[in-house]
Amino acid sequence: MAELTKRSVTYVTVEGELIAETPVNSNGEKVKVVVIITHDEMTVYSNECRSCVWMENGKQKMVKKTKGKSIMVSGFCCDCHGFFSGWVDGVFLKSYEFFEAGKGRDGWYNNDDLVKFLIKIAPLIRSKHPDMDIVLAFDNSMSHHKKAPNALDATALPLRDGGKNSRRMRDTKIMVERFNSSDRSSTLEEKAQKMQNEAGEQKGIKTILIERRLWVGTMLLECQECKDDVFRMDPNKRKELEEFKDADPNWIGFTDKCCARGCLRRQDDFRSQKEWLAEECEKAHFQIIYYPKYHCELNYIESIWAYIKCKLRRSCTFNYNSMVERLKSLLDGDVPLELFQKTARCCQRMMDGYRMGLKGPLLDYASKKYRGHRAMPRFVTTEVNNLQKEFEEKMRLKRERKLGNARAAKATS
Questions:
Q1: Which of 4, 132, 156, 400 is the most exposed place for a label (fewest CB within 10 A)?
Q2: How far apart are CA 282 and CA 379, in angstroms?
Q3: Of the segments 56-60, 229-233, 250-254, 297-301, which one has the largest average pLDDT value?
Q4: Looking at residue 374, what is its pLDDT?
């Protein structure tokens, strides 16, 4: 991420205005710009309103007891356009879509819906960012790491051919050893391997391994060590475990043929199988990255969602249709572009702080202190102790001030 941000456009404040700075290399020459397009989802409810309001003494505002009807937004945005839209090949596309999640409605939003949406708007993303390296950033949820329905996946295959719940997988290519009897030499040749038999059934693990000349008659479907995920991808390291110190050095559990499923998942074509999102990004010539788990503060779209929800709460009418119309207007341009640029710069400072070893409240304090900077100053790494002392002193004064106010209020009452 650090290398990508060096090649991305940065926004600096000059006399109260944000100015875009194009990245250059060490020789002062312009480089190919990287644009990081971030993605996330948000759900809003028709009865979400402000929790605190000014009321005449003795009166009370009546609000709905339930959250009301919901709608979900899945969107891509960048700091140069915000949420964008445009015509591509005679079709008007937007970088966000609505989804009415729930039983009896559109169901539940999953990775399949996200991939379809990405394929749909990929031409729009390219048209808005010509001559740029495009990077798509997603949160690190498990659903975003799902493989395609026809992807090579040993865990989804039974031992024998067919099977009621077995998936039909794509054909693959394997390396087969060919023996030349004339000079008694062997060469490796690439060969296509079909994943369905002549009857049209999905081949089982046993058939696939036999065709690859890897099957051992004593193989189980899956050994206990692979089930426990103990050095599953490198069984030779099991020798380091205390429980296997007295085992025979030639034990099959120390080899790649410890079990049928383990043997197949270690083959090059199965190991190199990419996730569905990564495959589609590669087809569209995009790069893909994931934010670290449990670090939503690094994704600036979260601040955009907070701004939108705040606006919706202020204009809440407890009506679903009016909420959707207001939401559309916000996504179509009512959110100021400057907010995207400022929040993106704030997230870059947070990332710099993590790289420097800052974390927790100290990182929040440093990010606020240097909010006028596009990145965290380099000298922060050498003055962490001074920054820590300054932060603790401010916290002490804040506690004393809060305690003094409480005592004063108690004395007047």
A1: 400
A2: 39
A3: 297-301
A4: 67
Lowest-confidence range among 124-133, 330-339, 372-381? 372-381
CA torsion 123-124-127-133 (nearest 10°) is -80
Interatomic CA distance for residues 21 and 99, integer angstroms = 37
* DSSP collapsed to 3 states, the chain: CHHHHHCECEEEEECCEEEEECCECCCCCECCCEEEEEEEEEEEECCCCCCCCCCCCCCCCCCCCCCCCEEEEEEEEECCCECCEEEECCEEEECEEEECCECCCCECCCHHHHHHHHHHHHHHHHHHCCCCEEEEEECCCHHHHCCCCCCCCHHHCCCCCCCCCCCCCCCEEEEEEEEECCCCEEEEEEEEECCECCCCCECCHHHHHHHCCCCCCCCCCCCHHHHCCCCCCCHHHHHHCHHHCCCCCCCHHHCCCCCHHHHHHCCHHHHCCCCHHHHHHHHCCCEEEECCCCCHHHCCHHHHHHHHHHHHHHCCCCCHHHHHHHHHHHHHHHCCHHHHHHHHHHHHHHHHHHHCCCCHHHHHHHHHHCCCCCCCCHHHHHHHHHHHHHHHHHHHHHHHHHHHHHHHHHHHC
To the question of domain 33-147+277-335 being in CATH 3.30.200.20, the answer is no
For the ranges 55-69, 140-154, 370-384, which has the lowest average pLDDT? 370-384
Over residues 97-109, the mean pLDDT reads 91
pTM, 2 dp: 0.83
Residue in this structure with the two tokens 């023996």, named with its chain if needed: 179
Beta pairing class for 70-77 and 34-45: antiparallel
Q: To 5 degrees, how large is the angle CA 41–CA 44–CA 49?
A: 145
C-beta of residue 74 within 8 angstroms of C-beta of residue 97: yes
Domain with CATH 3.30.420.10 in the chain: 33-147+277-335
